[in-house]
Amino acid sequence: MTSGGASLDPKGPAMGLIPGGALLPYARGAAKAGEIKVAGLKAVVAMAPAGGGALAAWNSEGLADMTAPLLLISGDRDPTVNYETGALSMFKQAVHADRYLLTFREAGHAMGLSPAPAEMQSRLWDKDWFDDPVWRQDRINAINLHFITAFLDLKVKGDTQMSSYLDVPTIVSDDGVWPYDKVLAYDAYSTAKDGSTVWKGFQRRHMRGLELRHAAP
């Protein structure tokens, strides 16, 4: 978020977590504030992002400084990073960024990991570092790959055709409908056309439990 232009709040809780006030010279209004923004950055993907609530790093003024296109990915039952004060709040406050929020309903914090390796399957404590208790991890990873690819192709490569994967016909994936067509194969992928409001690239009955919001600057 900071690399994309969000300015650090000099009075925010995050400042007190850095020993010796080492981050203060880079906070909003300080001498080195401009040095931590990455020049020419074309897009930011933030998965289960921290920096809100009790660990607030930017506040609303700082997030409003962000201008790089943003894709936020989060579970709405994240026990590590609160969804409401985290990804959802960032989505609402980064008002000058073209931004998306992909939400996995009932998912937790493990948004970008491989499934737990065999040696960590025997104890729940170990397994929970890798695997979500509701969502299959391979499913999370496949959906992330789908949307991150479309987002980066659109914002970094300028491939405007990718916008059709992001401009979904329904915010809540479960609301999508796909009238049965006996001509199409059972495992056909939706084009989000011809009466289908199932998200483009998803198969029938395989678009459950997701939300995708978009807001322009």
What overall form do the CA principal axes indicate? globular
Terminal Cα span = 16 Å
- Which stretches are low in confidence, meaning pLDDT under 50 for 5 or more residues running? none
Query: Helix- and strand-based class?
Result: alpha/beta
Helix count, DSSP H or I runs of 4 or more residues? 5
Strand order within the widest sheet? 1-2-3-4
Verbal overview:
The chain is an alpha/beta fold and 217 residues long. It has one domain (13-172). Helix content is 18%, strand content 10%. It contains five helices and four strands; from the N terminus they run βαβαβαααβ. It has helices spanning 59-64, 87-93, 124-127, 137-155, 163-166; strands spanning 44-47, 70-75, 99-104, 210-215. The protein has a four-stranded mixed beta sheet, sandwiched between helices. The radius of gyration is 19 Å and the shape is globular. It starts with 43 loop residues before the first strand and ends with a strand. 34% of the residues are buried. The model has no long low-confidence stretch (mean pLDDT 92).
